[in-house]
């Protein structure tokens, strides 16, 4: 009884004191958060597009978390490792087969005389390149990735080609929606895609690792068909048709090829990481790397969304690029840092949700969390260089990052394990950001010098 009285006398006042201190602070945080939300909802189209892109990324990441979490519980670690490696490989190959035409569409579609022809030409051309690259890869699978020989079955090759074509088309269609400033359509398509993925995951459960890949392939194909139903509402009279227009390809490919090379170099480390783990450490390590990197990518979804929206706006109005990048960077970095902090503190608990076999990647995930703000800054500089058409600058920086990351893995991965991937990824991203910052600042100084020179020449002309 005395203890209860002491609790009332001592603890209650302390609780009320804590409440008195923290309540105003919490109210202030909630008030500012609501003001920020109101500003975004009543802001120009860049923020609205970014909001839908972020919602798309969060939805895709959450559904991806659920998809691979269920896969981790229904399949062995080795089977998840094989399927996740195929998934990463698919995104890598789609980067080759698309030739960056999606970025060309964002740049040129709004001003194109024949928008329907441009979309159909892009889809037809990338279908041909996907079938060609996919056939070459399948024919030499023993040479390219001997670790995937376990999946070698005739019907699986057909699923592989279907997944490559549909993944490439999905990229093109999302860029079409972004160019038309209809990112809400992208959100709807991604929601449908992830619902179908979960449905087909159960349907193909008996096929083991091949079943996971088949679920993704069929779900992606059906979601693309849904995109074709949406497009006529955005572009009057649009119908999907085979088309190969030489003038359109000559307009898209020169711009797209260089930007695709830069993007391909930028994405290669992420896509090759599970494959490197598979060949050097086995399928179980590949599964750990893929799951941890997927969770790390969730932290980058806000900055990626704002960077994509900034590119769309900056390409339409290059004179406002600095203000667009500033606003995009502030929103993206604040949210990324918050998510990265949460991921760092809860890394072991997050991976435990996938099963005990994935807890070994907790330290690796922590390094990815540390690198997340650097990756966010890298995407911001990439947006600036894209709009300024400084494509060779992007290629040089991304080549340096790729060499640093892949070179270190070929030497250290077998002896130090997957944690060295996270460490070297952080150093590679940091080096890329520093180099990008130096080049960007020098470019701004050069622009200022040119403006001063023009003003001086103009002033002399007026005086004369």
| Count of alpha/pi helices | 16
Query: Termini, distance in Å?
Result: 100 Å
Strand content: under 5%
Overall tally of structural domains: 1
**Helix-and-strand structural type:** mainly alpha
Roughly how many Å is the radius of gyration? 25 Å
Unreliable parts: 1-19, 40-44, 449-464
Indicate the mean pLDDT. Answer: 79
State the helical fraction: over 70%
Based on DSSP secondary structure assignment, what is the total number of beta strands? 0
Order of helices and strands: HHHHHHHHHHHHHHHH
Largest β-sheet summary: none
**Shape by Cα distribution:** globular
List descriptors.
464 residues; mainly alpha; 0% strand; disordered C terminus
Compact summary:
This protein is mainly α. The chain has 16 helices and no strands. The radius of gyration is 25 Å and the shape is globular.
């Amino acid at each position: 009884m005395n203890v209860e009285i002491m609790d009332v006398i001592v603890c209650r006042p302390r609780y009320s004191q804590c409440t008195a201190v923290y309540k105003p602070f919490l109210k202030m945080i909630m008030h500012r958060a609501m003001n920020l939300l109101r500003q975004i909802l009543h802001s120009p189209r860049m923020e609205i597009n970014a909001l839908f892109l972020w919602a798309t990324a969060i939805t895709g990441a959450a559904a991806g978390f659920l998809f691979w979490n269920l896969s981790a519980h229904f399949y062995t670690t080795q089977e998840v490792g094989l399927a996740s490696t195929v998934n990463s490989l698919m995104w890598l190959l789609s980067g080759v087969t698309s030739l960056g035409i999606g970025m060309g569409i964002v740049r040129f579609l709004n001003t194109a005389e024949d928008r329907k022809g441009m979309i159909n030409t892009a889809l037809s051309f990338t279908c041909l390149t996907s079938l060609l690259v996919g056939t070459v890869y399948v024919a030499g699978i023993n040479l390219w990735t001997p670790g995937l020989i376990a999946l070698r079955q005739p019907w699986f090759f057909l699923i592989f080609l279907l997944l490559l074509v549909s993944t490439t088309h999905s990229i093109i269609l999302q860029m079409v929606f972004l160019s038309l400033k209809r990112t809400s359509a992208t959100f709807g398509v991604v929601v449908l895609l992830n619902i179908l993925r979960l449905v087909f995951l159960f349907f193909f459960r008996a096929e083991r690792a091949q079943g996971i890949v088949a679920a993704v392939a069929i779900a992606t194909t059906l979601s693309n068909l849904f995109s074709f139903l949406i497009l006529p509402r955005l572009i009057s009279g649009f119908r999907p048709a085979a088309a190969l227009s030489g003038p359109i390809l000559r307009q898209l490919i020169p711009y797209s090829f260089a930007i695709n090379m830069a993007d391909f170099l930028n994405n290669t480390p992420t896509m090759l990481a599970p494959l490197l783990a598979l060949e050097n450490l086995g399928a179980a390590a590949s599964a750990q790397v893929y799951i941890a990197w997927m969770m790390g990518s969730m932290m980058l979804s806000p900055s990626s969304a704002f960077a994509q929206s900034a590119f769309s706006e900056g390409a339409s109005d290059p004179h406002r690029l600095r203000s667009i990048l500033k606003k995009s960077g502030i929103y993206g970095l604040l949210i990324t840092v918050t998510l990265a902090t949460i991921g760092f503190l809860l890394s072991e608990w997050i991976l435990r949700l996938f099963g005990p076999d994935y807890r070994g990647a907790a330290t690796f995930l922590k390094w990815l969390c540390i690198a997340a703000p650097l990756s966010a800054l890298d995407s911001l500089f990439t947006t600036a260089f894209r709009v300024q058409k400084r494509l060779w600058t992007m290629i040089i920086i991304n080549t340096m990052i790729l060499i640093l990351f892949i070179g270190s893995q070929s030497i250290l991965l077998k002896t130090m394990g997957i944690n060295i991937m996270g460490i070297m990824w952080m150093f590679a991203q940091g080096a890329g950001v520093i180099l990008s910052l130096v080049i960007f600042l020098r470019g701004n100084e050069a622009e200022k010098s040119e403006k001063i020179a023009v003003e001086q020449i103009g002033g002399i002309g007026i005086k004369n």
